[in-house]
Amino acid sequence: MNRYKTVSKIGEGTFSEVLKTLSLKDGNYYACKKMKQLFKSTEQVNNLREVQALRRLSPHPNILILHEVVFDRKSGCLALICELMDMNIYELIKGRRQPLPDHKIRNYMYQLCKSLEHIHKNGIFHRDVKPENILIKQDRLKLADFGSCRSVYSKQPYTEYISTRWYRAPECLLTDGYYTHKMDIWSAGCVMFEVSSLHPLFPGSNELDQISKIHDVLGAPDSAVLRKFKQSRAMNFDFPPKKGIGLTKLLPNIVSFECLSLLNAMVEYDPEQRISATEALQHPYFAESRALEKQTLHHKLMQTEKANTTSSMNYLLRIAGQDRRQHVLKSLPEPTIRHHRPTFPVELPKLNVSGVGKTASYPTLKFQSVFPTASNNGKLSNIPHFKYFDTKYEKTQHEKVLLKPYYLPSIERKEGGV
């Protein structure tokens, strides 16, 4: 802790206190969660659920960032250095007379459901979702305090007295620890109601009063729902039939129908029928949030692509400037593109496939007979000798060849003589 200077105290809980600290290394402010429990070894620190959960779940835009784990072996003190946020949801709505605008509530609840979806997909459920553990900084919301978290794959039953009573689901109240990650959805629904109405939904003074307040609003469950619960040894499940007043009468008129629909789905008595975080994110109430998220993501991708292109060009220019061999860029003429056109027609005439083709008429050629024909007196006429010459020159040359004498040369023998 010598690298951090304490500035002020933010808050204190049962197991820890939170301090605002200044880092002497980078000059930034951080939230220091100092544990009241003393630890004996580094292995014990690494096995801490909160440390394991924050390491597994980071990074995520809606999960508190764990920057450093500071452990003093001599004293056994442990401190978790996390990012510093402005306030929690409880501090945001405390003392307000007018509810938050609907778009602000929608934005916060969308981010809360995103955080729950992320931790549930990673095999963790929080078990203590409440306004004090939901931190905000401007329009950014982050889920914090994973000291009570549990793995969804661990064997039941779990700890009975978990979660703050006002935000505890019915299955946590009526069973000996037989509950699932759906308890986080119930707690988130209670937070949603509190942000919308500025007062808690089920402010029970004890366990029995908590169940009674739930039944006042939602009504008593039927026997089919109660049979799904593994009955607690300390309580009787003989609830008299009762119809609740419903959530509509408890919420202000400014709440939309979609908001009321999602809230009813989140505080469903039967955990098997209760909506999941992934299903909640697809609810019509978050249609505007989904569109805005898609638009923001597209803008970030465009900015990243532009930055990468610019940095690549700067890098190439910088490398080119470092080269000692400076070359003048010459403008070269564009290469001449030679088109090798065929000498024959490319396009063939179309075939007539409509039926039988038309027959073309050609002139009839008349040939002179080469056989002797009988005259009127019965005698054969003399047949002249014909030879075809293409040109007059060829005819003359032929006549010269016929009239020219030929002389054979004398043949000499090797032994002499002719």
UniProtKB/TrEMBL annotation:
One GO MF term: ATP binding
Required cofactor(s): Mg(2+)
Residue ranges annotated for the Protein kinase domain, each copy included: 4-286
Spans through the membrane: none
SUPFAM superfamilies: Protein kinase-like (PK-like)
Alphabetized PANTHER family for the sequence: MITOGEN-ACTIVATED PROTEIN KINASE
Stated family: Belongs to the protein kinase superfamily.
Protein's name in the database: MAPK MAK MRK overlapping kinase isoform X1
Lineage of the species this protein comes from: Eukaryota, Metazoa, Chordata, Craniata, Vertebrata
